[in-house]
Structure formats: C-alpha cells, structure tokens
Amino acid sequence: MPGTIIYTDEWHAYAHLPEYARSHSTVCHNPTRPGGPEFARDDDGDGIREVHCNTLEGTWTGLRNFLRPFRGISKHYLNQYIAIFEWASNLKAVTNEFIKALAGRTMNHKFGT
C-alpha cells in the first residue's frame, strides 16, 4: 500500500525491502551498540515511539494463543484459521450490522421477525 512504512529489527533479510519500493525503518536490538539496545524509537518527536516491531510480535503471539485451544489443525485449513483471526483482530466495534452479517441476515431484516 502506498505510504506504508515497514518497521522491523535489523535482520539482514529485511535489507531488501527498499528494492521493492517499500519504506523501511529499523530498531537495533544489539546490546553492544553505544547507548545500549534499542527497542522503540520516537523519530518525529511527538512522544509516541512509532518505530518498533512489537505490534507484529504481539500479533504472532495472539495467533498462537488463538490456535492453541484447537490442539493442532490441518495445514490444509491453516489459511482459513488465520483469516478468522485476522478478521477478529481487525474488528473495531460490534455493530448491529455486524451481528446481522454474522447471523446471515440481510441488512434490512429486523431481529425477532
């Protein structure tokens, strides 16, 4: 997506992202770096540390915790489980329209009828 910035650590595989027209910013976890390791950085000075890779790490943890109760799933269906997790993670509010769609009702159908 245009304007998207990808935040990662300094793992060498990410160095090729600019070749694919992707903006890229990194944090350095190296403890031998002067000033100690860096885990988040505020580049624009607004007090919010926007350069970090914890969001993605937290997403992977969330996916693992989502899959754990299933006690193993078929690789054949993994993409469907991930799609459900992604959908649930992106859901910001439970609205009447959401409930209707979940129940398989049309948007102009009233509940209880």
Spell out the blueprint of helices and strands:
Layout: E1 5-8, E2 23-26, H1 54-67, H2 78-90, H3 96-103
Parallel strand pairs: 1-2
In short:
With 113 residues, the chain is mostly helical.
Low-confidence stretches: none
Describe the strand arrangement of the main beta sheet, using strand numbers.
Answer: 1-2
Gyration radius from CA atoms, angstroms: 20 Å
The pLDDT mean sits at 81
Gross morphology is extended
Instruction: Decide which structural class fits the backbone.
Output: mainly alpha
Number of strands: 2
Q: Alpha-carbon distance between the termini?
A: 43 Å
Figure out the total of helices.
3
Helix content range of the residues, please? 25-40%
- The string of secondary-structure elements, in order, is EEHHH
Biggest beta sheet attributes: 2 strands, parallel
Beta-strand percentage range: 5-15%
